[in-house]
């Protein structure tokens, strides 16, 4: 584990990391409709 406590900073760093990986096309992010689950998959 990187963080011992899940706080606001943890969520911000995680969110920004996910966005960065998606930008680099290492992740695929999908959501069918508003307010539905967001699916994040690693690209192979």
Percentage of residues in strands: 15-25%
Please state the structural category: alpha+beta
Report the count of strand segments: 2
Identify low-pLDDT runs. none
Mean pLDDT: 90
Largest sheet entry: 2 strands, antiparallel
The outline comes out as: globular
Can you offer a commentary on this structure?
The protein has 44 residues and is α+β, with helices and mostly antiparallel strands. It has one domain. It is built from one helix and two strands, in the order H-E-E.
Briefly characterize the structure.
This protein has one helix at 8-23, and strands spanning 27-30, 39-42.
Any descriptors?
two-stranded antiparallel ribbon; alpha+beta; 36% helix; 44 residues; 2 strands; 1 helix
Helices, strands, pairings?
Layout: H1 8-23, E1 27-30, E2 39-42
Antiparallel strand pairs: 1-2
């Amino acid at each position: 584990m990187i963080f011992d406590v899940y706080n606001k900073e943890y969520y911000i760093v995680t969110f920004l990391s996910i966005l960065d990986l998606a930008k680099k096309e290492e992740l695929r992010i999908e959501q069918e409709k508003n307010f539905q689950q967001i699916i994040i998959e690693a690209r192979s």
